[in-house]
């Protein structure tokens, strides 16, 4: 028994010594850092990095120089850019401005002491659109004509209260007190004209003419044609008709002269009557035609005269 106990103790000692030696051997066998690896860029990589940084620095300097040059040339400031100034109520442009693309604005207004000039090499077109983008009005200033396309064209006085001129598809109305035509050929109207008065300027003639058609003047209450300080001439290539449906035709003058009236035949030939006769009688045919007949002690008008036969 004593021997077995001694053996166990020795065995335990040997086991402890082996464990201690094994643990020491583990600590001694740890690998050391024999290989050293350098950290950083060397060689061509380093040169490429320095070149890239230098290129970025040069680009920044060039961009900064260009920005300063643009600000200097374009006159950028806190209020705007050169002649373009930003205001609270809009944009203000001084001088001549050129727009290469369409300009959409709400209002264009010039300064109080200058004019507003709109110019173009081809034409100037002003468009007005509704909320849906549809074209409602257009004003085109072209090299050959000025065209306005709208439902109704109005021209008002300087205060905007009085309507002076208006035009639409059905009629053209002028509400001015006087409409003056100063052309040498006058005014040409393709259709009827409604006006209360047609009057020429002082010391100038008034001429109403229809070269190829008829000229008609009519009014519901009467037509008055007067020349207070000059002669009044009414002529026609064919017939001249004065007609009153309900009233009368009044010719009021100191002298009423009817020239080139035909001479009726009574007792003598027309040539003999014109040489010997000095007083004639004015006769009227049943058709209303007027002719002359030699005056005698009694009336020489005959219903069967040659003038009335051919009238």
Account of the protein in words:
The protein has helices at residues 2-28, 44-74, 270-276, 306-309; strands at residues 80-81, 84-87, 90-93, 124-129, 135-141, 146-149, 153-156, 163-167, 172-174, 280-284, 290-294. With 311 residues, it is α+β, with helices and mostly antiparallel strands. Among the domains are: 43-99, no CATH class; 280-310, no CATH class. Strands 1-2-3 form a three-stranded antiparallel beta sheet, with no helix packed on it. A three-stranded antiparallel beta sheet has the order 4-5-6, with no helix packed on it. Strands 7-8-9 form a three-stranded antiparallel beta sheet, with no helix packed on it. The longest helix has 31 residues, at 44-74. The protein is rod-shaped and about 190 Å long.
Give the SSE layout.
Blueprint: H1 2-28, H2 44-74, E1 80-81, E2 84-87, E3 90-93, E4 124-129, E5 135-141, E6 146-149, E7 153-156, E8 163-167, E9 172-174, H3 270-276, E10 280-284, E11 290-294, H4 306-309
How do you describe this structure in short?
It is built from four helices and eleven strands. The protein is of the alpha+beta class. The strands form four sheets. It has a three-stranded antiparallel sheet, with no helix packed on it.
Keywords:
311 residues, alpha+beta, three-stranded antiparallel sheet, 4 helices, 16% strand, rod-shaped
């Amino acid at each position: 028994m004593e021997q077995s106990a001694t053996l166990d103790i020795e065995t335990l000692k040997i086991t402890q010594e082996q464990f201690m030696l094994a643990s020491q051997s583990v600590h001694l066998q740890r690998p050391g850092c024999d290989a050293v690896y350098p950290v950083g860029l060397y060689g061509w990589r380093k040169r490429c990095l320095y070149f890239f940084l230098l290129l970025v620095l040069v680009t920044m300097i060039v961009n900064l120089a260009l920005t300063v040059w643009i600000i200097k040339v374009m006159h950028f400031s806190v209020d705007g850019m050169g002649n373009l100034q930003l205001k609270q109520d809009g944009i203000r442009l001084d001088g001549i401005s050129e727009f290469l693309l369409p300009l959409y604005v709400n209002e264009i207004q010039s300064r109080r002491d200058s004019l507003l000039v709109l110019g173009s090499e081809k034409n100037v077109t002003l468009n007005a659109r509704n909320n849906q983008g549809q074209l409602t009005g257009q004003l085109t200033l072209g090299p050959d004509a000025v065209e306005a396309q709208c439902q109704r064209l109005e021209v008002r006085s300087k205060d905007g209260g009085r309507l002076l001129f208006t035009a639409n598809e059905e009629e053209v109305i002028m509400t001015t007190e006087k409409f003056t035509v100063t052309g040498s050929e006058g005014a040409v109207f393709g259709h009827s004209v409604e006006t209360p008065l047609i009057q020429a300027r002082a010391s100038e003639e008034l001429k109403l003419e229809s070269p190829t058609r008829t000229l008609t003047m009519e009014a519901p209450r009467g037509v008055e044609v007067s020349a207070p300080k000059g002669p009044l001439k009414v002529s026609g290539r064919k017939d001249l008709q004065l007609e009153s449906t309900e009233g009368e035709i009044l010719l009021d003058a100191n002298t009423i002269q009817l020239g080139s009236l035909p001479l009726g035949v009574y007792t003598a030939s027309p040539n003999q009557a014109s040489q010997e006769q000095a007083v004639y009688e004015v006769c009227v045919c049943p058709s209303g035609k007027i002719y002359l007949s030699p005056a005698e002690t009694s009336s020489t008008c005959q219903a069967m005269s040659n003038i009335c036969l051919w009238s």
